[in-house]
Amino acid sequence: MTTALPRLTGEYVLDPAHSRIGFVARHAMVTKVRGSFDEFEGTAHLDGDDPGSSHGRITVRTDSIDTGNQQRDQHLRTNDFLDAPNHPEITFVSTTVERVGTNRYQVTGDLTIKATTRPVTLDFEYTGNAVDPYGNLRVGLEGSVTISRKDFGVNWNAALEGGGVLVSDRVVLEIDVSAIKQN
């Protein structure tokens, strides 16, 4: 059953078992590689009466990257990409939340990858809420943003014989979360 937005106001914790933090990048100019991070955590304060007072934070373990290919994952953990040994986390900390439609929000915040922090704005959709069998109030949010990986010092690439490059500069970050209200 859906709860009115004002009743959703409170503190929330992301449920990693029912959430996904992922990405999509073009490979060899012809296909997309999709991946996700298996280890992350996040918190949020949601304000149903005044969405602009809402805020959140997500922390992702870079060494938990998973594209379904162990060799590629190992390469992504190196300094060519995420440099997981020296930069074990990617963080996003919101700075503003703006309602832009019935269930749509723009969440601006500071994204930090490889010690480089830049502002980004994610387009989010509130997908609903429900009380689970354990009595927990859950809310669903889906969001994404396209970034330039080079803006964050992730510069490695290889030229292709017929033109173009092996890995696109543009990467879509995807966030699909179930958050549990804390009592």
- How many structural domains can be distinguished in the coordinates? 1
How are the strands of the largest sheet arranged? 1-4-5-7-8-9-10-11
C-alpha geometry? elongated
CATH-defined superfamily: Lipid/polyisoprenoid-binding, YceI-like
Provide the CATH top-level class.
Mainly Beta
Structural class given helices, strands, pairing?
Answer: mainly beta
Low-confidence stretches: none
Strand elements, count: 11
Verbal overview:
The chain is mainly β and 183 residues long. The chain has one domain (5-181): Lipid/polyisoprenoid-binding, YceI-like (Lipocalin), CATH 2.40.128.110. It is 4% helix and 55% strand. The protein is built from one helix and eleven strands, in the order ββββββαβββββ. It has one helix spanning 70-76, and strands at residues 10-14, 20-27, 31-37, 40-46, 55-61, 65-66, 89-99, 104-113, 116-131, 137-148, 167-181. It has an eight-stranded antiparallel β-barrel with strand order 1-4-5-7-8-9-10-11. Pfam families: YceI. Belongs to the UPF0312 family. This is YceI family protein.
Give short descriptive properties of this protein:
single chain; 183 residues; mainly beta; Lipocalin; eight-stranded antiparallel β-barrel; 1 helix; elongated
SSE map:
Blueprint: E1 10-14, E2 20-27, E3 31-37, E4 40-46, E5 55-61, E6 65-66, H1 70-76, E7 89-99, E8 104-113, E9 116-131, E10 137-148, E11 167-181
Antiparallel strand pairs: 1-4, 1-11, 2-3, 2-11, 3-6, 4-5, 5-7, 7-8, 8-9, 9-10, 10-11
